Amino acid sequence: MSRLSALHARARLLYREIAKFGVVGIAGIGVNLLIFNVLRWTTGLQPVRASVIATVVSIVFNYVGFRYFTYRDRDRGGRGREIGLFTFFSLIGALIENGVLYVATYGMHWDSTLSNNVFKFLGIGIATLFRFWSYRTWVFRTLDGAATEQAEAILTDAERGAQIRPGRPRP
């Protein structure tokens, strides 16, 4: 497999992963914002408390989506480790997300429904960048090196077979 085609294949896989991450993430953002606003309207909770509850619910929603949709082809060994790391990195993301809302609400005194939602959304966006990197790097790891090498060898052999023309000897 040439370097260019290998790079193209990796880029295509990364784009697919980002798209799947985005689908689950957008649904998770919807869950997060819906629960946040319902809690604010129906219970009168303070913005950051309502946001923390909404964030926890969306973390559970996102784990299911990531495990069974986005990263379903990844190594499933060590599920306890996976859940532990997912929880750890999700909590860091929750601190980022709710920290932005906290600073806006209590530090800058921007405490209206609109500003709460704007800064909640901004916090989600910043935390999402961290979560994407940490989940794909630490939580939903690719298959071990031997399996990856075997898969690449199969692709290389298939590509060689496609490049052979009738009447030419095999390399």
From TrEMBL:
* Membrane-spanning residues: 21-39, 51-71, 83-105, 117-133
User: Where in the numbering of this chain does the GtrA/DPMS transmembrane domain appear?
Assistant: 20-140
Q: Where is the secretion signal located?
A: none
- Tell me where it mainly resides: membrane
| Pfam families in alphabetical order | GtrA_DPMS_TM
Coiled coil location: none
Would I find Membrane among this entry's keywords?
yes
The question of whether Transmembrane is a record keyword is answered with yes
| GO process annotations (BP) | polysaccharide biosynthetic process
Q: How does it sit in the membrane?
A: Multi-pass membrane protein
Keywords carried by this UniProt record: Membrane, Transmembrane, Transmembrane helix
Where does this protein reside within or beyond the cell? Membrane
* GO cellular component annotations of the record: plasma membrane
Quote the InterPro entries the UniProt record gives.
GtrA_CellWall_Glycosyl, GtrA_DPMS_TM
Query: Which family does the UniProt entry place this protein in?
Result: Belongs to the GtrA family.
Write the protein's name: GtrA family protein
Species of provenance: Streptantibioticus silvisoli
The top of its lineage is: Bacteria, Bacillati, Actinomycetota, Actinomycetes, Kitasatosporales
